[in-house]
Design goal:
heterodimer; A: mainly alpha; MetI-like fold; 14 helices; globular; B: mainly alpha; 74% helix
Chain lengths: 304, 271
């Protein structure tokens, strides 16, 4: 025990540099987002009225504080464009997470049932696509889903459809892209909890007369809930703010909040409104982020 | 031993096979079509390398690729250094003031939507009046990827038998020497894997790079993205295949490293 506490001091010293780095490049930038979300658009470049000028002293800061305005947030709640993109983001994230769970669970379950020596290989096979470029994987689907792409060719050849189906620029394409991209994030935490499960519990259930299906629902599934929670959060949180997938695969009809933010920033050059959208998105994500953080810590502390 | 109830069923095998096919088929198709001689992406015109030669004659694409490789190499290196230090602090620092803020700051970027990270970093760079380009993208990527390195190295550190360090100290090493001569060699594979992960993540990023780069210094993903928005082009298939090949090489090295690591104990990291 005493050896450990001697160890702790240099370890804490090691953390100083990354600590300062994260404060400067992660925490402080949020302060800027908050500040600019409360300022007003100006014609000048950069397109916002700078708020705090520390060189100008206290009086100036006080004056600046009085100029803070919630106008951008008022715009967010009054304009149906923003409200609908928020609702759509949540809807898309919930739906995709549900589909991911339905597809990912059987795969993770199959992996956990593999003979011990095959399991690391199966895990590697699931991880590899995660390493392969995200953008390239979306692009691969554009290849398949386009008007004269492989999917339509196959459907036509099998006489399932008589005319090519429009896949690109639809919600179906977007869901395929999201599920495809996030599947490893769902499978890995599920697999981690399923692989640790004691097989003797299932045997006990079946000894007591439970059918395999009943044993699954009464024993396996409830015990895998931490993995379900971790996988669902790991998918839900980034999907809410997703930009690339809906931009490339979904139609131009309705946007997700990430797209709205992008549009305000890059096309309309309205930095304050874009910042306000980011703050609102962040507020939406704080509860699931805190939940995820708690799960993550419990897993690290519990040793797996 | 294991009884029938715990054995793998045909249903298990089918779902596993379908799942892996779903994950790999699109990439395989993309790679095959990159060797297609036809200009029409959907018509097979025989095998050809013409889209590869076209890439090597495309000045703008080459510049973007070079920029991306430099950003990825520099940011992965700095991120590995900082991420390893952070992992040591979290895994060996016991309780300290601000620990939960620290781990929160390191875990949040793993799932934070990239539009938020990108926008917030850009606003910082504007406030600092930093000239946007290579360095701003590199700093942004370092910040994001060091969190992944931390997770990988931290889980490796957590799985190491601490009595080894304690034995070294009983034999007269001070903590720093005990760490450098006993623990560090054990976590080198995880550090290598962390660098590889940071490198590929940087090479992949569109959103954060779009926010933090300046005019005239586009990264490869930014260029690919703007081309993809206009539709499928055979040249893009070729570029994507080369990126996949590069990443495949990186994965082979990383898995080799984590194999070395797992021979010492439990497998390195969930990522």
């Amino acid at each position: 025990m005493s050896a450990r506490s001697i160890f702790a001091r240099p370890a804490r010293l090691a953390a100083i540099a990354p600590y300062l780095w994260m404060v400067l490049f992660f925490l402080v930038p949020f302060g800027f987002v908050l500040k600019i979300s409360l300022s007003q658009t100006a014609i000048a470049q950069p397109p916002y009225v700078p708020l705090f000028d520390l060189t100008a002293g206290w009086a100036a800061i006080k004056a600046a504080l009085s100029e803070l305005s919630l106008d951008n947030f008022k715009l967010l709640v009054s304009d149906s464009l923003y409200i609908s993109s928020y609702l759509r983001s949540i809807f898309v994230a919930v739906t995709s997470t549900a589909i991911l769970l339905l597809i990912g669970y059987p795969i993770a379950y199959g992996m956990a049932r593999l003979p011990q020596r095959w399991q690391p290989i199966a895990m590697m096979l699931v991880i590899v696509p995660f390493w392969t470029s995200f953008l390239i994987r979306i692009y691969a689907w554009i290849n398949i889903l386009q008007h004269d792409g492989l999917l339509n060719k196959m459907l036509l050849a099998l006489h399932i459809v008589s005319t090519p189906v429009v896949w690109l620029s639809t919600d179906t394409a977007m869901y395929i892209g999201i599920v495809y991209s996030y599947l490893p994030f769902m499978i890995l935490p599920l697999y981690a909890t399923l692989a640790k499960m004691d097989g003797a519990l299932i045997e006990a259930a079946s000894d007591l007369g439970a059918s395999p299906g009943r044993a699954f629902w009464l024993v396996t599934f409830p015990l895998s809930l931490p993995g379900v929670g971790a996988g669902a959060l790991l998918c839900f949180i980034p999907i809410v703010g997703e930009f690339v997938i809906p931009d490339l695969l979904a139609g131009s009809g309705s946007m997700m909040i990430g797209q709205t933010l992008w549009l305000e920033f890059f096309t309309n050059k309205d930095w304050p409104v874009a910042s306000a959208a980011a703050v609102a998105l962040l507020l939406l994500l704080i509860p699931p982020l805190l939940l995820y953080d708690r799960l993550q810590r419990r897993t690290l502390r519990g040793g797996g | 031993m294991t009884r029938r109830v715990n054995r793998i069923s045909p249903f298990n095998i089918t779902s596993l096979a379908l799942g892996l096919a779903f994950l790999y088929l699109p990439i395989v198709i993309l790679v095959i079509y990159s060797f297609n001689a036809s200009r029409l992406v959907t018509v097979w015109g025989g095998w050809s390398l013409r889209w590869y030669t076209e890439f090597f004659n495309d000045r703008a694409m080459l510049d973007a690729a070079w920029m991306s490789l430099r950003v990825a190499a520099v940011s992965a290196t700095v991120a590995t250094l900082l991420g390893t230090l952070a992992a040591i602090g979290l895994a060996r620092g016991e309780r300290f003031k601000g620990r939960s803020l620290f781990s929160g700051m390191l875990y949040a970027p793993l799932v934070m939507p990239e539009v938020i990270s990108g926008l917030s970093l850009l606003l910082l760079f504007v406030a600092l009046s930093a000239e946007r380009g290579f360095w701003t993208v590199t700093l942004a990527h370092t910040t994001l990827t060091m969190c992944f390195v931390t997770v990988v190295v931290q889980s490796r550190l957590a799985s190491i038998d601490r009595s080894l360090e304690e034995a070294a100290m009983d034999l007269g090493c001070d903590p720093v020497r005990a760490f450098l001569s006993v623990t560090l060699p054990l976590i080198v594979p995880a550090i290598v894997a962390g660098w590889m992960l940071a490198f590929t993540l940087s090479l992949d990023d569109v959103v954060i790079a779009s926010f933090t780069t300046g005019p005239g210094s586009a990264t490869l993903p930014i260029r690919i993205y703007s081309e993809v928005r206009l539709g499928v082009k055979p040249q893009i298939n070729a570029i994507c295949t080369m990126v996949i090949a590069l990443i495949a090489v990186v994965i082979v090295i990383a898995s080799f490293a984590s194999k070395l690591s797992s021979s010492q104990g439990e497998s390195a990291a969930p990522l």
